[in-house]
Amino acid sequence: MPCYGGRHDQGPATTLTGTTRRAETDPARISILSALDQPEASRLPMTELSLVIRHEYPADRAAVERLHERAFGPGRFARTAFRLREGHGHDAALSFTALVGTLIVGSVWQTPVWAGTVPGLMLGPLTVDPAFEGRGIGGGLMRRAIEAAGEAGHRLILLVGDAPYYARFGFRPVPRGQLVLPGPVNPERFLALSLSEDALGEARGTVRPRRPDGA
Ligand SMILES: CC(C)(COP(=O)(O)OP(=O)(O)OC[C@H]1O[C@@H](n2cnc3c(N)ncnc32)[C@H](O)[C@@H]1OP(=O)(O)O)[C@@H](O)C(=O)NCCC(=O)NCCS
After folding, report:
1. Interacting residues of 118 by C-beta distance below 8 A, sequence separation 6+
2. What is the pLDDT at residue 76?
């Protein structure tokens, strides 16, 4: 799998897929984007662009925060899913960054939570740099995160997001009222994936942060 990096934008420029895209000023990204603009580039499979998806490093933090700022804006911290991370933060061992060379263009976090009495993970934010959307990076990050959760013995992943996007990874709406988040959420966007047996069926009550020591 291939990898990416950071960004500064001004004005529209030509497109890969016919829609207008902002002019790029970051030399490293220009070389990737101009490579992507070549007609044959759109037929190039991602592997040709040396995309790498790896565990998150502390040094990724600033670039990942920029992705979050771009995708969710300054008000993001008031969102229920963001508030769940206020206590203990996300687990970097279950969180991944997508890069091309040294450039970071994608990220997914997973945060330990209790779903009633069932230990689980809250997945999100999942973000991909808009200039690199639609190339499977989001899907690659999701599959890597789900795989790592299973390998680590987790049985349940929850998230707040667009069901039409996450259904392809097996996520389904949480039955209304079964689990309660520490803030308002559109029930159609509160989704779950059971990684073993019917973990969701056993999960009833409040969703709250879970300390790394499991408390
Ligand atoms: C959502 C996001 C991570 C997808 O990343 P990506 O790398 O473009 O995703 P992929 O390339 O793996 O998948 C693209 C496909 O998902 C679809 N898709 C993307 N976002 C979607 C959404 N919110 N709802 C439904 N479908 C969506 C695209 O239309 C495309 O469909 P296609 O395969 O039929 O062409 C990215 O668009 C993003 O960062 N959005 C802003 C932050 C955000 O909203 N994140 C959470 C989403 S709830």
Report:
1. 155, 156, 199, 202, 203
2. 83
N residues, the chain: 215
Topology of domain 13-209, per CATH? Aminopeptidase (3.40.630)
Q: pTM (2 decimals)?
A: 0.83
The H-assigned helical ranges of the chain are: 27-37, 61-72, 80-84, 137-151, 163-166, 199-202
Q: Which residues pair with 110 in a beta bridge?
A: 123
**Residues with C-beta less than 6 Å from any ligand 1 atom:** 71, 126-128, 133-139, 161-162, 164-165
Q: What percent of the chain has pLDDT over 90?
A: 64
C-beta of residue 111 within 8 angstroms of C-beta of residue 160: no
Residue among 96, 107, 165, 189 whose CB has most ligand 1 atoms within 8 A, to mutate:
165
Question: Residue 155 has what DSSP assignment?
Answer: -
Domain boundaries, the chain: 13-209
